[in-house]
Write a structure and sequence with these properties.
By secondary structure, the chain is mostly helical. It has 6 helices and no strands. Helix 1 packs antiparallel against helix 2 and helix 4 runs antiparallel to helix 5. The chain is globular and about 35 Å long. The protein starts with 9 loop residues before the first helix and ends with a helix.
Length: about 110
């Protein structure tokens, strides 16, 4: 399951795996995993997802898991701040702008 599996609850580990698999903007599996995870586990899960995403070298295409991170960011203000900080420090790509605008509340 990876190094993140040793320091998180089972629910958080399950959430991370679901979020990293998410390839579409909306995912019933990820939404269900978030609902089944205690809110105290949201930040450790976000940190684990971002740790995996940091390993990506080519940001020209939207990677699997980015929509999962966005979905979790919508549920928790701390996750939102962390995710926005992460994505804004990446090399800018066209696919990022709508995600940033959604999370910042722009239309």
């Amino acid at each position: 399951m990876g190094s993140f599996g040793t320091v998180m609850s089972g629910a958080a580990q399950k959430l991370v795996l679901a979020l990293l698999k998410q390839t579409q903007r909306i995912s019933q599996a990820s939404t269900k995993a978030i609902e089944e995870t205690p809110p105290d586990d949201y930040m450790p899960a976000m940190d684990a997802v971002l740790e995996k995403l940091r390993q990506i070298g080519d940001w020209s295409k939207r990677p699997d898991g980015i929509y999962g991170a966005r979905l979790l960011a919508e549920k928790d203000v701390r996750c939102k701040a962390t995710f926005l900080d992460f994505i804004k420090h990446l090399p800018p790509e066209r696919w990022m702008k709508p995600i940033i605008e959604e999370l910042e509340g722009a239309k």
